[in-house]
Design brief:
By secondary structure, this protein is of the alpha+beta class. The protein has a single domain, classed as Ubiquitin-like (UB roll). 17% of the residues lie in helices and 23% in strands. The chain contains 2 helices and 5 strands. It has a 5-stranded mixed sheet, covered by helices on one side. Strand 1 and strand 2 form a beta hairpin. The protein is globular. The two termini are 23 Å apart. 23% of the residues are buried. It binds FE2/S2 (inorganic) cluster. The site of FE2/S2 (inorganic) cluster (FES) has 13 residues, from loops.
Length: 92
Amino acid sequence: MRFYVENTDQEVEIKPDCSLLEHLIQNDIEISHSCGGMGSCGTCRVLIINGSESLPPRNAEEQQRATDLQFQYHERLACQICPIQNLTIKIP
Ligand code: FES
């Protein structure tokens, strides 16, 4: 399984139990993450272009940020989701 980052035209192999943010950092793909992945800053926001249905629902932390920042359905926090199937994302 892999995910594709539209901005950088990169494909990243999905590792188990690894957040989307961790995947991006490990592959030197630039993304803000002011709170270090705690789910409190909202700066790791990504747009899910394809594959939203394979992701789990927002947890309480992500839902709070999504409400505060008025996220659309396809906007997720990279630090709060672990990809498990093919995805296409865009970093705004
Ligand atoms: S890094 Fe702060 S919410 Fe994801």
